[in-house]
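Next up, a specimen:

>
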Amino acid sequence: MRIIRRAVVFVLIENTMLTIISLCYQYTLKPILFLFDPSHVHHRFGEIGSFLGKFKIARFLFWLLFAKKNPSLSQTIDGLHYDAPCSIAAGFDKDVQLIEISPSLWTGFHTIGSLSAKAYAGNPGPWLVRLPSDQSILVNYGLKNRGIDAHISHLHQVMQQGLQQPLWISLAKTNCAEICDRNQAIEDYCYSLIQLQKSSLWSVFE
């Protein structure tokens, strides 16, 4: 009975903390964030996530708050085990900043990219535009990324700590005027695939 009581108390405390965090975001943090350019907010959150992911204590605290392992939600597909059915979508972590903090946020796998063979600085701004009437956001990054070679070099560094979930990589054709016909596009994709194959870092690519 003592163990049951402790478990109930722990669940109540955890749920209370999550409710407080949700209310603080909805009524305090969100109104403040919406005063700033969404591209700037996205960039800063990536930097914060990258910084926090470097510290074990931060990862552990986030895991205590957000990791909800449930055997009924975990599954193994094609030899890859997923603790949860959800993940950060392709396009959010285009600069591979959140790969270390991601397992503490109850994601079953981590998606990076989209990545392309060559670097692309992005479309002319604005990159993100809020559409309040639709409660949505318009994305206009245009496959902004540092190029497959730079990202693989960065992945080698962060993967040394051991990523405890499958890594999905979203690939795309380099967004530039020089690659304009089908054969050039195929060569562009093949270069990215070959570099990934050599690295052996990925679990799934899309």
